[in-house]
Design a protein that fits this description.
Blueprint lengths: L1 E9 L7 E8 L5 E10 L2 H7 L9 E2 L3 E9 L11 E4 L9 H4 L17 E2 L7 E2 L9 E5 L3 E3 L6 H4 L5 H12 L7 E5 L3 H12 L4 E6 L2 H9 L4 E4 L5 H8 L5 E6 L4 H10 E9 L13 H7 L2 E4 L7 H13 L11 E3 L4 H9 L6 E4 L1
Pfam families: ADH_N (PF08240), ADH_zinc_N (PF00107)
Protein name: Oxidoreductase
Family: Belongs to the zinc-containing alcohol dehydrogenase family.
């Protein structure tokens, strides 16, 4: 049996997305069919549309999603029909060298569905964004990409843990190891940076400094836990962070922009033996130049954060519980809810910096 559903497809590089009818097969061994309830509009989806990931068009976009498992294939035991789940793009294999060393958050052989979804009009195979493809009424994923969480959370808020919000929170808690009493600076306060601020606050940081060039984002950062804000268009970010930390620099600096200039700010804004976490995604042509003596002399750690170094089975339920306890406001990341045919307009608003997240609600 197959399912005909509506979905958002990017047919060619730079072309506006279109609402199409696609064919979704029933799940095979190790797979799950998920009825999507909500899916966030992430910058990564725009990267796919622009050909910035690869050129395997057409793409089935969408990946920050939550929904209900409709059916599962042979051998699936971790989730069952009726389960409310968040989708993830890190379905760990359990067998690669990272998993066998007890570091499954670095899994080097993550799973996706083996069967292909196709365009109803032509039969052409679709490439699902991050192996998910959730701007659709239903999608097919590997069962390990489904993490069961408490149904009491709204799908619009829960789904954001599937990518950007988890990336930011994890950059602070998992990669940066932010702890009680630490000073933290976050450079770039879009969706991921804002989540890093919220994560630092939840982790007990004594001082959380938000840095951006947009005052609107700094206002939001305050609401999510920033204790201080710096507009780096008006003030030297490094000097401001040092001044706010007794002249030393922050214990942890999280770079959520992905540019050489802001990475250098992060490098020099940290305390001696402090930690820099890069969670912003650079483009292939970018180069970084730092005096090697400074890298040696300042000590500490220079880290990159992949997906917030998260383990979905561990982190998603824990963060949903914190949300339901009122300790982590995931609803604050949902700027607007939209229909499936409004994704292209949401990309335009993203460019203008008008939203933390637009969320498609089905």
């Amino acid at each position: 049996m197959t399912h005909q559903v509506r979905a958002v497809v990017a047919r060619g590089k730079g072309a506006p997305v279109s609402l199409e009818t696609i064919i979704v097969p029933d799940p095979g061994p190790g797979e799950a069919l998920v009825k999507i309830e909500a899916c966030g509009v992430c910058h990564t989806d725009l990267h796919y549309r622009e050909g910035g990931i690869n050129d395997d068009f057409p793409f089935l976009l969408g990946h920050e999603a939550a929904g209900v498992v409709e059916s599962v294939g042979e051998g699936v035991t971790d989730v069952a029909p009726g389960d409310f789940v968040i989708l993830n793009w890190r379905a760990v294999c359990g067998q690669c060298r990272a998993c066998l060393r007890g570091r499954p958050w670095y899994c080097f052989d993550t799973h996706n569905a083996q069967q292909k979804m196709t365009l109803a009009s032509t039969g052409q195979e679709l490439s699902p964004a991050l192996g998910i493809g959730a701007f659709a009424e239903k999608t097919l994923v590997a069962a390990g990409q489904c993490t069961k969480v408490d149904r009491a959370a709204s799908a619009a808020a829960a789904g954001l843990l599937g990518c950007g919000v988890m990336a930011g929170i994890g950059a602070a808690i998992n990669t940066g190891n932010v702890g009680r009493g630490d000073s933290v600076a976050v450079i770039g306060c879009g969706g991921v940076g804002a989540a890093a601020i919220a994560g630092s606050s939840v982790a007990g940081a004594a001082k959380v400094i938000a840095v951006d060039i947009d005052d609107r984002k700094l206002v939001t950062a305050r609401k999510l836990g920033a204790t201080h804000t710096v507009n780096s268009k008006e003030t030297d970010a490094v000097e401001a962070i040092r001044e706010l930390t007794g002249g030393f620099g922050a214990d942890v600096v999280i770079e959520a922009v992905g540019r050489p200039e802001t990475y250098q700010q992060a490098f020099y804004a940290r305390d001696l033996a402090g930690t820099v976490v890069l969670v912003g995604v650079p483009t292939p042509e970018m180069k970084l130049e730092l005096p090697l003596l400074d890298v040696f002399g300042r000590g500490g750690s220079l880290k990159s954060s992949w997906y917030g170094d998260c383990l979905p089975s561990r982190d998603f339920p824990m963060l949903i519980d914190l949300h339901l306890q009122g300790r982590l406001d995931l609803d604050a990341f949902v700027t607007e809810t939209i229909a499936l045919d409004e994704v292209e307009k949401a990309f335009e608003r993203m460019h203008g910096g008008d939203v933390l997240r637009s969320v498609v609600v089905l």
